[in-house]
Amino acid sequence: MKETDREAVATAVQRVAGMLQRPDQLDKVEQYRRREARKKASVEARLKAAIQSQLDGVRTGLSQLHSALNDVTDIQRSLADVSRDWRQSINTVESLKDVKDAVVRHSQLAAAVENLKNIFSVPEIVRETQDLIEQGALLQAHRKLMDLECSRDGLMYEQYRMDSGNTRDMTLIHGYFGSTQGLSDELAKQLWMVLQRSLVTVRRDPTLLVSVVRIIEREEKIDRRILDRKKQTGFVPPGRPKNWKEKMFAILDRTVTTRIEGTQADTRESDKMWLVRHLEIIRKYVLDDLIVAKNLMVQCFPPHYEIFRNLLSMYHQALSTRMQELASEDLEANEIVSLLTWVLNTYTSAEMMGNAELAPEVDVSTLEPLLSPDVVSELLDTYMSTLTSNIIAWLRKALETDKKDWLKETEPEADQDGYYQTTLPAIVFQMFEQNLQVAAQISEDLKTKVLVLCLQQMNSFLSRYKDETQSYKEQHLRDRQHPHCYVQYVIAIINNCQTFKESIVSLKRKYLKSDVEAGVSLSQPSMDGILDAIAKEGCGSLLEEVFLDLEQHLSELMTRKWLLGSNAVDTICVTVEDYFNDFAKIKKPYKKGFGEDADGYCDTITAVAEVIKLTDPSLLYLEVSTLVSKYPDIRDDHIGALLAMRGDTSRDMKQTIIETLEQGPTQANPNYVPIFKEIVVPSLNVAKLLK
Question: Which GO CC annotations does the UniProt entry carry (predicted)?
């Protein structure tokens, strides 16, 4: 207590010191004293009240303990009295056994009398129930059936209680009510028929469907009550439990499966589009059925039935089973695409399970796949294998068709710019486009695989194309009169090479993502080289064709016949012009040598002509030196042949000009493209002039 007093004094001193910090606060000392007195009185009052409350509680507890002690004493006395009375009554109970048996018999007789009316009316109730079932009055029929079953079950239960081992009486009762089970089965058939047509019934007569559900609910309650009594007595009436709710879902499940399977109206033999039609019918039926179930059927079933969720699960499982069956068939490539597109895309799209009318009950992200990944992978492998064979066959057929066009007597078609072409590139890449568009409907990965396949097969195809163009040339050289439009079709083949190159680039740009483009490009063999080789070979064939036509006329040049007068030059000019008109229909860049580069060669011809037509021999050296400075790759044999063609240059003069030019410095333009180094000088062109 002393320690507490000291702490109280110290606290008080601190508070007083805090109140009297300034001189002007001394005037308020009396005010402070009154306030502290009020606080002290308030605290003392609360303390007294708390102590008084504690004392009252203790006083009440003691009183209750005293009462409980008295009650325990009274209970002990009462139990002693009961024990004494029980011992005295044992003999009395034994003497009342006959009375007990009489009571049991009386209760059984009372039950029999009570059910006597129902027992005698059983045949009539059976007939009425049968009539009601036939009339479709299912609720009334079920009510009478319940009365029959209740009478039967009550009698059998009483018999079971009296003598459970008496099978003869049990059989007698069961036989008398034998029609009851038949009525139950007949009523069940009617219920199942309504449930099988529930999606139609709910739109035309929802009351009938509600009646069926009410009957099933009644039977479920009876089943539960009987099973509860079984735990106590061990008695179960015949035909119980009926489990009609479980059977109802089984009927609905079987109905859904039958509806899905029954949508196939055609076969491959009768209609090539059988699978597309089959899948479209399934889509429409399932979507319509689920919308009806969501909007109408849920109103006819208790919430705990979760009818829409269960139907959704049934449809999903039935669809999965059907898709598995279809996947196991020997499907063609286009059928595999139709199936996978439907399974992977259509099923979860807004056209089906993702439809806004099914939201939010249907969440497509929670739906399991209709086909397992292994089955999908197997189908894709089959599709790629079949597609490979088909592409090879299509390309071969396209090439054979194009080869037939090469033999036509009419010129090939020209595009909008007038360039010759055949339909081969369009056919090939149209086929590629179609397959890529189909693959894109399934997945990006498949689209990339198909593109790689197309490019691989294109590479092999171009090799065959190259061989066929070479064979075409050889066939023509054996008889240059045939084919009639050989030159035009070679030009078309050359143009096709450029079209192929452009189409390949366009195909990659359209169907290949940028992040995988590099990898695919590196994995593909270079097709540009093959196409350039075909085009180069074609250009060579065209030039060869020109020189074969000009060979006879060129051989006349620098001969006596030519000097005396010949149409060779005119013929050469006309022939070259005629070919040039055809060569103008070659696309860039393969037009090089036939178009924009021709001017350079014409300048060369003009420069050479200046040397030939010079009339003053004294200026010959100057003219030749000018020619050599412009074309530094010109050789001595070229100059010798040129001077020999003039016919007025002596051997010594020719030698002097050549030696002088050899001594002079020559420095070629770095941009100069050699021309003369490819030109071979015939050894007999001087001798020709003597003929």
Answer: exocyst
Tokens of 201: 């019934």
Q: What are phi and psi of 420, to 5 degrees?
A: -65, 145
Q: Please report, as a single letter, which amino acid is at residue 125.
A: I
Closest residue by Cα to residue 208 from 303, 129, 135: 135
Asked whether the beta carbons of 309 and 362 are under 8 A apart, the reply is no
Of 620, 624, 622, the C-alpha closest to 649 is 620
Classify residue 175 as exposed, middle or buried by CB count within 10 Å of its CB (0-12, 13-18, 19+).
Answer: exposed
**CA dist 199 to 249, 252, 354, 358, 571, Å?**
14, 10, 21, 16, 89
- d(Cα 414, Cα 401) in Å, to the nearest integer? 18
The CA-to-CA distance between both ends of the chain, in Å, stands at 159
Amino acid at the residue 412: P
Alpha carbons 127 and 133: distance in angstroms, whole number: 10
362 and 308 Cβ atoms separated by less than 8 Å: no
Q: Which residues of 121-142 are buried (b: 16+ CB within 10 A; e: fewer)?
A: ebeebbeebbebbeeeebeebb
Q: Residue 662 in contact with residue 639, Cβ under 8 Å? A: no
CA distance 260 to 654: 100
Tokens of 18: 């805090």
Query: From the centroid of its chain, how far is CA 283?
Result: 15
Q: Which residue reads 């005295």 in tokens?
A: 88
- Tell me the residue length of the chain: 691
The answer to whether 534 touches 500, Cβ cutoff 8 Å, is no
Q: What is the pLDDT of residues 188-235, one digit of tens each?
A: 999 999 999 999 999 998 999 999 999 999 999 988 988 888 888 877
DSSP 289-348: HHHHHHHTGGGTS-GGG-HHHHHHHHHHHHHHHHHHHHHTS---HHHHHHHHHIIIIITT
pLDDT at 563 over 80: no
In this structure, which amino acid lies at residue 216?
Answer: I
Helix (H, G, I), strand (E, B) or coil at 121: coil
For 654-683, how does the pLDDT look when each residue is reduced to its tens digit (9 = 90+)?
A: 777 777 777 665 666 677 777 877 777 766
Rg of the chain over CA atoms, in angstroms?
56
Q: Helix or strand or coil: residue 606?
A: helix
| 3-class SS shares of the chain: helix, strand, coil, % to 5 | 80, 0, 20
Distance CA 637, CA 679 (A): 10
Tokens of 37: 């007195």
Nearest in space to 115 (alpha carbons), one of 177, 168, 162, 175: 177
Using one digit for the tens of pLDDT, what is the confidence trace for 310-327?
A: 999 999 999 999 999 999
How far is Cα 497 from Cα 425, in angstroms, rounded to an integer? Answer: 9
At residue 293, the pLDDT reads 93
* Angle value at C-alpha 643, between 638 and 646, nearest 5 degrees: 135
Contacts of 132 (CB under 8 A, 6+ apart): 138, 140, 141, 144
The answer to whether the beta carbons of residues 357 and 289 sit under 8 Å apart is: no
Integer Cα distance of 110 and 122 in angstroms? 19
Query: What sign does the dihedral 227-232-233-234 (CA atoms) show?
Result: positive
